[in-house]
TrEMBL record:
Highest taxon listed in the record's lineage: Eukaryota
Compositionally biased spans, kind Polar residues: 348-358
The protein's name in its UniProt record: Aminoglycoside phosphotransferase domain-containing protein
Region (Disordered): 346-370
InterPro entries (UniProt xref): AGP_Transferase
Species: Serpula lacrymans var. lacrymans (strain S7.9)
Length: 370
C-alpha cells in the first residue's frame, strides 16, 4: 500500500492535508550496518528474549505509537547513562498493522464498515468480562482469579484518581472537583490570564450550571444495566488501534490506560466518528480536525448502533441513553484552551437550554453530586 498523506476534515467540513500525519509505515526490515556496541546490545536482547531482533530506522522514531526498536534503543542509550533518571525497558514484538490515523484515509467504504464491525467485536467482548464492582484500574499484581482494583491510572495526573470509587455519583463528584480546581484565581494569576476574577467566576458558574443538569440527569439512570461495572480501554481511539489494509483490527495499544466504569460511561461510539461534546465543530478548538466527514460519520455511527443492538441490547441501551453524560464527562476532563469555560458553556446551553436562573458563582453545593 502506498504511503500517501491522508486527508483530514476541518471545522467547515473541508478536506485538508496535515503535515504531521504520514501514511502507513512499512513492516520491520533489516536496517543498515550498525556499530559494534549497538550490535552487542542487540545480541544481548536476542539472547535474553530468545528470538530474532532486527534494527530498523523510522523517520517517526518516538512519535510513532508503535515504536520501532531503533527508537527504543535510542531511549535506552540516553537513559542508561543517566543514573539520576533510571528507566526500565520492555522489548517486545512489533504489532502488525498501522494506526487508524495513518490508514483511515486509504480505506474503502466497505473497509471502513468492517473497521466499525471489528471495533464492535472488541468492545462487546470487553463489556461482558466479569470485573469487581468498583471504579478504578486493575492492579498489575492481580491474578485472573483475584482482580485487585486500584485508583484509576492516567497518563496525566488529572486523568487518574486518588482513590477507588464505589458509585457513579462519587466519581462524578471527583471530576467536578478537578474541573473546579483548574479554574481558580491562583491558577489564572500564575499563567497571566487577563481579567482573572471575571474569567474564574464565569468558569465556576458554568461548572455549577452543568452540575445542576447532571444531578437531575442521574435520577433517570435507574436501570441496573446502566450502572453495572465493565472494563474499558480509556483511550480506544485512532492512535491506539492498529488495522490492516481491509479495516480489520489487528492490535490494540496503550492498555496501561484502562479502567472499570459504569456501563453508561463505558459504552461508546468509535472515537474517530465523534462529532458531539468536545468534538462538536461548533465548540471544538480551532486546532481540532476529524479523519472522517460529518455525514459519513453519522452513517457509520448508525451502523454501529445496529450491530450492537442486535448483539447486545443492554450495550445499545447504555450507548444511546448515556450520550449526554459521556459528553459532560468529556468536558470535565478536557484541558484544551477554553478560557472561562466558554466552549463548555456553549455546549451546556445548547444541550440543556439557557439557564433560567444563574447559580451562585462559587457555591459548590450547586454542583454537588450525591
Amino acid at each position: 500500500m502506498s504511503s500517501t498523506i491522508p486527508l483530514v476534515y476541518n471545522h467547515a467540513g473541508q478536506q485538508i492535508h496535515r503535515d504531521n500525519i504520514t501514511g502507513p509505515l512499512a513492516d520491520w526490515s533489516q536496517g543498515q550496518l550498525i556499530s559494534t556496541e549497538r550490535q552487542s546490545l542487540l545480541n544481548a536482547i536476542k539472547k535474553s528474549i530468545g528470538r530474532q531482533v532486527c534494527e530498523t530506522k523510522s523517520e517517526m522514531k518516538g512519535k510513532d505509537a508503535n515504536m520501532t526498536l531503533e527508537a527504543v534503543l535510542d531511549d535506552f542509550s540516553v537513559t542508561r547513562s543517566n543514573a539520576e533518571y533510571p528507566h526500565d525497558f520492555l522489548v517486545m514484538d512489533k504489532s502488525s498493522g498501522n494506526t487508524v490515523t495513518r490508514m483511515y484515509g486509504l480505506l474503502s467504504a466497505t473497509s471502513k464498515e468492517d473497521l466499525v464491525r471489528s471495533y464492535a467485536n472488541i468492545v462487546l467482548e470487553l463489556y461482558r468480562l466479569p470485573v469487581p464492582h468498583k471504579i478504578g484500574s486493575i492492579s498489575p499484581g492481580s491474578t485472573p482469579n483475584a482482580l485487585e482494583v486500584i485508583p484509576k491510572l492516567g497518563k496525566r495526573s488529572d486523568l487518574g484518581a486518588p482513590r477507588v470509587f464505589e458509585t457513579l455519583e462519587q466519581y462524578l463528584k471527583y471530576l467536578f472537583s478537578v474541573k473546579r480546581r483548574a479554574f481558580t484565581l491562583t491558577k489564572h494569576d500564575a499563567i497571566g490570564e487577563k481579567d482573572d476574577t471575571g474569567s474564574v467566576f464565569s468558569a465556576q458558574s458554568t461548572i455549577s450550571e452543568l452540575g445542576i443538569h447532571i444531578r437531575k440527569l442521574l435520577l433517570s439512570y435507574d436501570s441496573p444495566c446502566l450502572r453495572r461495572f465493565v472494563l474499558m480501554h480509556d483511550h480506544l481511539d485512532e492512535t491506539n488501534i492498529l488495522t490492516d489494509d481491509h479495516g480489520r483490527i489487528t492490535s490494540i495499544l496503550g492498555w496501561g490506560s484502562h479502567s472499570i466504569q459504569p456501563a453508561i460511561l463505558a459504552a461508546e461510539y468509535p472515537s474517530w466518528l465523534s462529532y458531539s461534546g468536545v468534538n462538536d465543530p461548533q465548540f471544538a478548538p480551532t486546532s481540532k480536525w476529524w479523519i472522517e466527514g460529518a455525514e459519513e460519520s453519522a452513517r457509520l455511527r448508525r451502523l454501529f448502533e445496529e450491530i450492537v443492538k442486535e448483539r447486545d441490547p443492554e450495550y445499545h441501551q447504555a450507548l444511546t441513553q448515556g450520550s449526554v453524560i459521556r459528553a459532560a464527562v468529556g468536558w470535565l476532563m478536557d484541558i484544551r484552551d477554553d478560557p472561562a469555560c466558554s466552549r463548555m458553556r456553549g455546549w451546556t446551553q445548547k444541550t440543556f437550554g439557557p439557564s433560567s436562573s444563574k447559580p451562585p458563582v462559587l457555591d459548590d453545593s450547586q454542583c454537588h453530586i450525591s
